[in-house]
């Protein structure tokens, strides 16, 4: 999975939960700009934040694969 596919997955899950990008940013204690960039597929070195965002919207990594 590449950064763009991961970002799309986070965006779909966030929207399914009825969350705004701001809501998600607040939930994981980060800035809204990070969520915007993450969902746009911008490669980032901030893997911890990306994983926190995924977990907050119900995406869990299993053996290197994302499951929602």
- Overall structural domain count: 1
Q: Quote the beta fraction.
A: 5-15%
Following the backbone from N to C, one meets helices and strands in this order, namely HHHHEE
Give the overall silhouette. Answer: globular
Q: What's the number of helices? A: 4
**Which class do the helix and strand fractions yield?**
mainly alpha
> What number is the mean pLDDT?
88
Radius of gyration: 11 Å
CATH uppermost class: Mainly Alpha
Give the helix level as a range of percent. 55-70%
Strand order of the largest sheet: 1-2
**How many β-strands, per DSSP?**
2
Named CATH topology: 434 Repressor (Amino-terminal Domain)
Distance between the termini: 14 Å
How many strands, what sense, and barrel or not for the largest sheet? 2 strands, antiparallel
* Unreliable spans: none
CATH superfamily: lambda repressor-like DNA-binding domains
